[in-house]
């Protein structure tokens, strides 16, 4: 007898502070450490580290976007659990604030040498700002 694939994926996205989403979805695209990972119902189990990037999920014809910044995702045939250090729904992102942060960090990086200990933190800040802007633009497209 053939295994029956689940009809949907139960998606949970949580941070240390709160739950961002708990939805029944058709598919999820996760920014994994080695690149994006597409997940459909019935996916093989795995655990992946997250990189900073937009996470996308689809419910019927609607697409939703969440900016995630570091963490882990557990994928099971009928469930995806994302444990992110920081996560923001695209519609909640303040684009002006993210753009200002991007500009400030780029200016900082131009004027500080690579050997400056704060450069690593600044590069992480820049990745987060760019991710927030990309995620917000997806929602507004």
Question: Can you describe this structure?
Answer:
The chain is of the alpha+beta class and 141 residues long. It has 2 domains: 9-91, ATP Synthase, domain 1 (Sandwich); 92-140, Single alpha-helices involved in coiled-coils or other helix-helix interfaces (Up-down Bundle). It is 28% helix and 44% strand. It has 2 helices and 8 strands, in the order E-E-E-E-E-E-E-E-H-H. Strands 1, 2, 3, 4, 5, 6, 7 and 8 form an 8-stranded mixed sheet that branches. Helix 1 runs antiparallel to helix 2 (118-140). The protein is elongated and about 60 Å long. 28% of the residues are buried. The mean pLDDT is 93.
End-to-end C-alpha gap: 45 Å
Net shape: elongated
Count of separate DSSP helical elements: 2
The string of secondary-structure elements, in order, is: EEEEEEEEHH
Radius of gyration from the alpha-carbon trace, in angstroms: 17 Å
> In the residues, how many domains can be counted?
2
Q: Considering DSSP H and I runs of 4 or more, what fraction of the residues is helical?
A: 25-40%
Structural class: alpha+beta
CATH fold-level name of the largest domain: ATP Synthase, domain 1
Percent in strands: 35-45%
Tell how many strands the DSSP assignment holds. Answer: 8
Let me know the CATH homologous superfamily of the largest domain: F0F1 ATP synthase delta/epsilon subunit, N-terminal
What is the residue-mean pLDDT, rounded to a whole number? Answer: 93
């Amino acid at each position: 007898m053939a295994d029956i694939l689940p009809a949907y994926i139960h998606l949970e996205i949580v941070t240390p502070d709160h739950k961002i989403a708990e939805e029944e979805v058709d598919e999820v695209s996760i920014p994994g450490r080695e690149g994006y990972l597409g997940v459909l119902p019935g996916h093989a189990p795995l655990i992946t580290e997250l990189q900073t990037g937009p996470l996308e999920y689809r419910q019927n014809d609607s697409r939703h976007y969440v900016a995630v910044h570091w963490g882990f995702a557990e994928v099971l045939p009928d469930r995806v659990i994302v444990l992110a250090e920081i996560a923001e729904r695209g519609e909640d992102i303040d684009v002006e604030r993210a753009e200002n942060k991007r500009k400030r960090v780029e200016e900082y990086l131009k004027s500080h040498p690579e050997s400056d200990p704060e450069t690593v933190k600044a590069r992480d800040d820049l990745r987060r700002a760019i991710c927030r802007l990309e995620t917000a633009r997806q929602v507004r497209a």
